[in-house]
Amino acid sequence: MTTVQLEHPHAQRRRTLVRGLPLAPAVVLMLVFLLGPILYCLYSAFTDMALTGSSETSFVGFENFRKIFTSDEFGRALGYTLFFTIVSAIIGQNVLGMFLALTMRAGGPVARAVVSAVVIGAWVLPEVVAGYLWLAFLGEDGPLNQILGFLHLPTQDWLFSLPILAVSLANIWRGTAFSMLVYSAALSEVPREIEEAATMDGAGTIRRLVSVTIPMVRRTIATNLMLITLQTLSVFGLIWTMTRGGPSGASTTLPLFAYQQAFQLSQLGYGTALALVLLALGGVFSLIYLRILRLEDGVR
Amino acid sequence: MTVAPTRPVRPRVARGLAGRGAANLALLVVGFAFVIPMVWVVAAAFNGTAGLSVSWPQPWTFDNFRAVLNVETTYRPMLNGLLLCGGGTLVTMVGAVLAAYPLSRYRSRWSRPFLLTILFATGLPITAIMVPVYGLFVQINLIDTVLGTVLFMATSALPISIWLTKNFMDGVPVELEEAAWTDGASPMQALRHIILPLMWPGMSVVAIYTFIGLWGNFFVPFVLLLSNDQLPASVSIFTFFGQYGEIVYGQLAAYSLLYSLPAVVLYLFLARRLGGAFNFGGAVKG
Asked: How far apart are the first and last CA of chain A?
């Protein structure tokens, strides 16, 4: 609806400013509370800032990063973070969410309503509550072991034997609804005629899915993967409630590691350097997905 | 859901029915797996002798609820949570509606880069910046203040809210406003008297979505608030742990139910109003 007007460039610039004015409150808030901390992060990651306050902070260059990349603890935390993200988001939530969205299209209305209520219920519950539910569910006398015992299968204290897998399962349970909703919305826009045509041509269910339905929503898949990856990279409350990162660090992902270093051990500089690494990791994942999307555009 | 067109030949109908049966079975299995972890909290909340194991309440009792329903344990944290999340949602909505207006109504070469930045910011892992935010809050004396926490929570929800609000506002036809402009209304008057009343449903979606997100948020108030009497429900739930030695599981479960209630009720309201999958799918199309 822009009308082409011949105006003095000065007046035009002023008009742009006036029109953009309503953006100011949101922009100011985001500059102060989002960009500010990121810049602060960039600064303090290169210092030996400590919470104890007393002594002055000095610039230490890449010391924090050298410490990070040579420490075994960081290596483990990074490994757990990647495991947690890949297993619970990229595989778990993504595949289960797509499976549910596809199955719901084929299922009856009652089953559809019941399952979506339950799955979304798990998503709406506050993360701390979800943590407690899973703490109880996986505990030594918890329901899972009761069921396994009933089936005469070996029982164990999952939070001790396989803590990172335990928190990953909990995160799949909690986060699948998001992918399910996104994929349901995307699938509802796939024209049924195209799928019917594939069936007429003799394609089986699996074949139709792989060659017709899924390729049609591939852009949504890439975008959804990016969103759930970033969400999962920063999960804190769920893991904290279930294991506090333990036992002996066996479920300490990067957010928990940064928290422990910064707040429990008062190494604010080191903690922010870790936060920066976490941000960079999110950036790398985003770039990969954006790259996939861009390649897509190039092909078409 | 669209009605499937009539299927051609009979064998396909039979296969369709078998397929539907298999789909229903698969759905029920997944639904069952999702429900099991929830059983404990309900059973334990009404159980006089609850532990971590699941058992039929013995004795059946409301004692756990009675024990937690007091100012110290429930009412104040809930009220704090309401204040933080309500305040945060209010600030977010005001910021988002104002910002969405120029983004939706004017074309400028700044619009696209700005929107892309917003989209990128929606994915920003807030957990990663909490350490520097803590440092910042200590420096500018906002640590342990409700105002500071409200502002930060509001800001963390702003990018996604702006994005969604802009999409909803795009759905309001611009012709209605042009009439108002001709009558001499300023853009802000048009926003208030014409657009807002029309996009009320969309805004309630964004507001409820924001509120639920903030209500469940644990890490932000956990880091930014220190004094016990300011903590919201999401953080004070930890008082059931350790402080008195043993965890009182029955009370913890009862409290968990009470704390989850607002989020669940609001979601049900949202789902009823908009028929389930509300339209944030549109924002994720890429």
From this structure: 29
Residues of B in contact with A16 (CB under 8 A): 108, 110
Nearest to A85 by CA among A288, A260, A270, A269: A288
Buried b (16+ CB within 10 A) or exposed e, B36-69: ebbebbebbbbbeebebbbeebeeebeebbeebe
Is a pLDDT exceeding 90 seen at residue B69? Answer: no
CA B157 remoteness from chain centre: 10
Is pLDDT at A4 greater than 70 in this prediction? no
Q: What is the DSSP string of B133-192?
A: HHHHHHHTT-TT-HHHHHHHHHHHHHHHHHHHHHHHHHTS-HHHHHHHHHTT--HHHHII
Nearest CB partner across the interface for B53, out of A40, A112, A141: A141
List the CATH number of the domain containing A240. Answer: 1.10.3720.10
Domain that holds residue B136: 69-284
Kindly state whether residue A35 falls inside one of the protein's structural domains. no
- Tell me the C-alpha distance between B163 and B165, whole Å: 6
Separation between Cα atoms, residue A266 and residue A273, nearest integer Å:
13
Task: Spell out the residues 6+ positions from residue A110 whose beta carbon is closer than 8 angstroms to its own.
Answer: none
Q: Is the pLDDT confidence value at A261 over 60?
A: yes
Residue (of A145, A141, A138, A186) closest to A159 by Cα position: A138
Strand, helix or coil at A79? helix
Q: Is residue A54 one of the residues assigned to a domain?
A: no
The verdict on residue B105 lying in a domain is yes
Segment A212-254, tens digit of pLDDT: 888 888 888 888 888 888 889 888 889 988 888 878 888 899 9
Q: Tell me if B32 is assigned to some domain.
A: no
In-domain check, residue A17: no
A-B Cβ pairs (cutoff 8 Å, strict): 300
At A8, the pLDDT band (50, 70, 90 cuts) reads low
pLDDT at B245: 54
Assigned token pair, A245? 């990162």
How many structural domains compose chain B? 1
Asked whether residue B29 is domain-assigned, the answer is no
With 0-12 / 13-18 / 19 or more C-beta atoms within 10 angstroms meaning exposed / middle / buried, residue B245 is: exposed
Q: Which residues from B are below 8 Å from A230, CB to CB?
A: 123-125
Closest CA to B85 of B165, B153, B164: B153
Q: What is the CATH number of the domain that holds B155?
A: 1.10.3720.10
Handedness of CA B19, B25, B26, B28 (dihedral sign): positive
Task: Report if residue B48 sits inside a domain.
Answer: no
Domain extent, residue A269, equals 79-299
d(CA A50, CA B159): 31
Residue of B20, B27, B217 to mutate, interface with A, max A Cβ within 10 Å:
B27
Interatomic CA distance for residues B214 and A150, integer angstroms = 40
**Is residue A10, in this structure, part of any structural domain at all?**
no
Q: Look at residue A298 and tell me whether its pLDDT is greater than 60.
A: no
Q: Give the total number of structural domains in chain A.
A: 1
Residues pairing with B47 in the sheet: B60
